[in-house]
Amino acid sequence: MIQRVWGGVGLLLFALIVFAAQDVVSAVEGTVNRIDARTKTFAVKTADGAEHTFHFAGRTAVHGTKAAVKGSKDAFHGLKEGSEVAVHYTAQAGRETAEEVDQIGKDGMKMAEGTVWHIDRAAKTIAVKTAEGAEETYRLAEHAAKDTGKDIGEGAEKSGKVTVYYTEEAGRKVARFFKKTF
């Protein structure tokens, strides 16, 4: 009997450790101010002056650069110093690893502005009404779907003004990053 209890406690502790070890993805927006190909890192300076240094992993996806579209073998997929980016990253033991980098400036992804009309978290879509009155629906990329809960809460669905940065894939608009505007 005691052996079963200890076995159950051990299994519970193992499950808690595995759950706690899962990476939490955060996002930061800023300008690339340094790229180091030797260490596979790049630094992003945010609007408030903070600087984040991100590690570029083999799994890191880049959207919005011409090289990313062409399937470049360049380690940074066309990112350059001065690029405006949104970086979705994980942090573990003080090391920030870029999971996805979205180039959002004038040379980056397409952009739309409007008011959030509807969010369907189950279908992972967001509908935005533009200033002209048109309603655009975007499929939320994985990281953007997670960010939806942080920036736009329940009840704010029909009043949140946003800028949506998106790509087009197979004829569908995919929201990669969005931010609240005031």
CATH superfamily label of the largest domain: Copper binding periplasmic protein CusF
Q: What is the name of the CATH topology of the largest domain?
A: OB fold (Dihydrolipoamide Acetyltransferase, E2P)
Enumerate how many helices there are, as a single number. Answer: 3
Tell me the strand order in the biggest sheet. Answer: 1-2-3-5-4
> How much beta, percentage-wise?
over 45%
The overall average pLDDT, rounded, is 77
- The run of helices and strands is HEEEHEEEEEHEE
Q: What is the terminal-to-terminal distance?
A: 61 Å
Q: What is the overall shape?
A: elongated
CATH architecture of the largest domain: Beta Barrel
Described by strand count, sense and barrel closure, the largest sheet is:
5 strands, mixed, barrel
Cα-atom radius of gyration: 19 Å
Structural class: alpha+beta
The overall number of domains is: 2
Q: How many individual β-strands? A: 10
What is the CATH first-level class name of the largest domain?
Mainly Beta
- Low-pLDDT stretches: 5-22, 68-72
**Percent of residues in helical segments?**
10-25%
